[in-house]
Every structure is written in structure tokens, then in C-alpha cells.
Design brief:
about 300 residues; alpha/beta; Rossmann fold; 2 domains; six-stranded parallel sheet; about 40% helix; globular; binds guanine
């Protein structure tokens, strides 16, 4: 059994990005600048955005965190997005999800200029991804592809089962694993809350990618020997023994499932750090594209 060590690989990617930034600095060029907008005070979202900003510092990017109150109106957020679209200093930005209920998420994501949409959530970029065109690939699926690539995990002709159809992970993942090329060329089954007898499906899977958000959902009895298991779950489970009062728990019953698999991602230290590294990679790509069009 091999652990797909997202922490280690993400550090390698960050080192590669740092080397690119150092070259930009040596040439007197502008370095990439990422902005992150967060609306409200959700603890998990604040933690994630904090990690994204720290990662920018680590690789030498500029970063801007925009904090808006929980009562921000849709119009106020759309105004802020317009400002970021127009700001030539900013190469890319993200709107951290979820948003408060008074705000229409789809309307907001469509307002982000596709050239600055480093999350890859705009319909133009999502469509390009589905059509194999060069674009920003959403960071979590992109991170999973990169992990499979760097560990040389075979995907061609394999049966990949994706659990969860979210726009951020499950849906794009199902498209990407079925694309031509590597990683890809899988036969993909996308399962969700209406899927009947999921064990019958997971037990036939060569590769399982779980993005469900139910702690310890995937049990050893649900998988076949030597499966590849990718755990995207990051649920905060209350725990009195932890100083934070919670532990981050994945979708996979790691203790038992890890005994049967060929490859597995841990939680934490698997997909999470890869997501951040790939957001940086998309921001670097945004800067390179802006430079090429001399913005
Ligand atoms: N919320 C959970 N995952 C993500 C992500 O990848 N991007 C943004 N913007 N919000 C998220």
C-alpha cells in the first residue's frame, strides 16, 4: 500500500512555483497576485482562505484578502467583483464558497471575468474543460489529477467511481477522469444521493474518488482488493480531546480501508494541500496569460 502524500507533493509544486516567481523577479517582472473574497465568518472558510493567503506568501506571490460581512448584499458583492475584474494588479481571484443565503451563487460566479477565474467555476471555463480546451481546471480535481500523475497511478481502462456530484469536485472530476490522455481514459460512474445500492458499484471500482462530506462513509467491505482510494472529505467532527474541539475527518474509514488498497490519500495531508498548490498553479497561469497579452 502506498500513501499518496499530498503534503509532500504540494511542497514540491510550491518549490517549482517559487523557482518561476524568482525568475520573474530576476527579470524585473510583476509577480502573480491572487485575491480571495470571503463573505461572513464561517470558521472553516476562514481557515481555508487563511491557508491560501499563507501559501501565496510562501511562493512569493502578492495576495489580497477581501473580507465582507455576513449581511453583504448581492449587489455589494457584485460591485466588489467588478472592481477586482478591472484591477490590473490582480491576476486572479476566488470567491470562497459557500455564500450566505441572500446571495445567488451562480450569479456571482458568472460575474467573475473568465480570465481571472482561477477556481475554474465560470461556465465558460467549465465548458472549455469539458471540451478538452486549455483553461483553469478547478483546483481540487486538478490536484487529484496531479497526485495520480506524479505517482504514476494507471487510470487508462480503469473503472473510476466518483461519489458526490458537486460542481466543485464530483462533477468536474467525473469529466476529467473520462477525458482522453493521462490521467484519464477511465470508464466513469458518477454516484450521488439517489444512487441505489452504492456498495454494488464501489465494490467494482478500480479507483474511488469520494467527495461526499460524510465522515467514515466508505468502509473496507465496500471496496475490492488493491483499489485506489482518493478521499476528498474534510468534515470537522467534534472531539473533546482535541485542543481545537474538533478533528478533521475524511469520507473514508482509513484504518480499515488502507489495509486493502494499492494507493490511498490520508486526511489531512492528502487532497487538501494539493488543492491549494493547484490554485497557486492556476494563478501563475493567469499571470503568464496576462503577460502574454501585456495586461
Ligand atoms: N469552498 C470549498 N472548496 C472551494 C474551492 O475550491 N474554491 C472556493 N472558492 N470555495 C470553496
Amino acid at each position: 500500500m502506498t500513501i499518496l502524500d499530498g503534503k509532500k507533493v504540494s511542497n514540491e509544486i510550491k518549490d517549482e512555483i517559487t523557482a518561476e516567481v524568482n525568475k520573474m523577479k530576476a527579470n524585473g517582472e510583476k509577480v502573480p497576485h491572487l485575491a480571495a473574497v470571503i463573505v461572513g465568518n464561517d470558521g472553516a472558510s476562514l481557515t481555508y482562505v487563511g491557508s491560501k493567503v499563507r501559501a501565496c506568501e510562501r511562493v512569493g506571490f502578492e495576495s489580497t484578502m477581501v473580507r465582507l460581512s455576513n449581511t453583504t448584499s448581492e449587489v455589494e458583492l457584485l460591485d466588489k467583483i467588478e472592481e477586482l475584474n478591472e484591477n490590473k494588479e490582480i491576476d486572479g481571484f476566488i470567491i470562497q464558497l459557500p455564500l450566505p443565503p441572500q446571495i445567488n451563487t451562480q450569479k456571482v460566479l458568472m460575474a467573475v471575468h473568465p480570465d481571472k477565474d482561477v477556481d475554474g467555476f465560470h461556465p465558460m471555463n467549465f465548458g472549455k474543460m469539458a471540451l478538452d480546451m486549455s483553461t483553469f481546471i478547478p483546483a481540487t480535481p486538478f490536484g487529484i489529477l496531479e497526485l495520480l500523475d506524479r505517482y504514476g497511478v494507471e487510470t487508462k481502462g480503469k473503472h473510476t467511481v466518483v461519489i458526490g456530484r458537486s460542481h466543485i469536485v464530483g462533477r468536474p472530476m467525473s469529466i476529467l477522469m473520462g477525458r482522453r490522455g493521462f490521467p484519464g481514459n477511465s470508464t466513469v460512474t458518477l454516484t450521488h444521493s439517489h444512487t441505489k445500492n452504492i456498495t454494488q458499484i464501489t465494490s467494482q471500482a478500480d479507483i474511488i474518488i469520494s467527495a461526499l462530506g460524510i465522515p467514515n462513509f466508505l468502509k473496507a467491505e465496500m471496496i475490492k482488493d488493491d483499489a485506489v482510494v482518493i478521499d476528498v472529505g474534510i468534515t470537522r467532527v467534534p472531539d473533546e480531546n482535541s485542543t481545537k474541539g474538533y478533528v478533521i475527518t475524511g469520507d473514508v474509514d482509513f484504518k480499515n480501508v488502507s489495509k486493502k488498497v494499492s494507493y490511498i490519500t490520508p486526511v489531512p495531508g492528502g487532497v487538501g494541500p494539493m488543492t491549494i498548490a493547484m490554485l497557486l498553479k492556476n494563478t501563475l497561469l493567469a499571470r503568464e496569460r496576462h503577460r502574454a497579452s501585456s495586461i
